């Protein structure tokens, strides 16, 4: 079992930055592939970024490439999502997710993950 707690959301103006954190409980954090998802009102939940347990494999959805950066600190059991040049369309609840997998596994769909955080709201004003 692993518990995930997101933090770092908030209200920011367009063009601004936020850094989300997701702290995981338990051991062997490096054995977990991690993902960031978001869900905007009235829309389906979508993948934003993902990183393998080793950190060697990274995925970004097209709409955030060049603006968002996912990273992890396995010593702190934490994964981060640095979000720069934020746009109003980035407004959503952001969730982190985890899956116990091989070190270079990277999941890109909801079904790939079996542990979820409670979400943190990100609101970007125009």
Short description:
The chain is built from no helices and eleven strands. The protein has strands spanning 4-7, 10-13, 18-24, 32-39, 46-51, 58-60, 68-73, 78-83, 92-100, 115-116, 120-125.
Fill in the keyword field for this structure.
single chain; 4-stranded antiparallel sheet; 126 residues; globular; 0% helix; 7-stranded mixed sheet; mainly beta
Description:
- The protein has strands at 4-7, 10-13, 18-24, 32-39, 46-51, 58-60, 68-73, 78-83, 92-100, 115-116, 120-125.
- It contains no helices and 11 strands.
- With 126 residues, it is mainly beta.
- Strands 2, 4, 5, 6, 9, 10 and 11 form a 7-stranded mixed sheet that branches. Strands 1-3-8-7 form a 4-stranded antiparallel sheet, with no helix packed on it.
Specify the helix fraction band: under 10%
What Rg is obtained from the alpha carbons, in whole angstroms? 13 Å
How many beta-strand elements?
11
- What is the 3D form? globular
Question: What is the terminal separation in angstroms?
Answer: 40 Å
Report the sheet with the most strands, covering strand number, pairing sense and barrel closure: 7 strands, mixed
Low-confidence blocks of residues = none
Report the β-strand fraction as a percent range: over 45%
SS summary, helix count? 0
Give helix and strand order, one letter per element, not per position. Answer: EEEEEEEEEEE
Structural class: mainly beta
- The averaged pLDDT comes out at 96
Strand and helix map with partners:
Blueprint: E1 4-7, E2 10-13, E3 18-24, E4 32-39, E5 46-51, E6 58-60, E7 68-73, E8 78-83, E9 92-100, E10 115-116, E11 120-125
Parallel strand pairs: 2-11
Antiparallel strand pairs: 1-3, 3-8, 4-5, 4-9, 5-6, 7-8, 9-10, 9-11
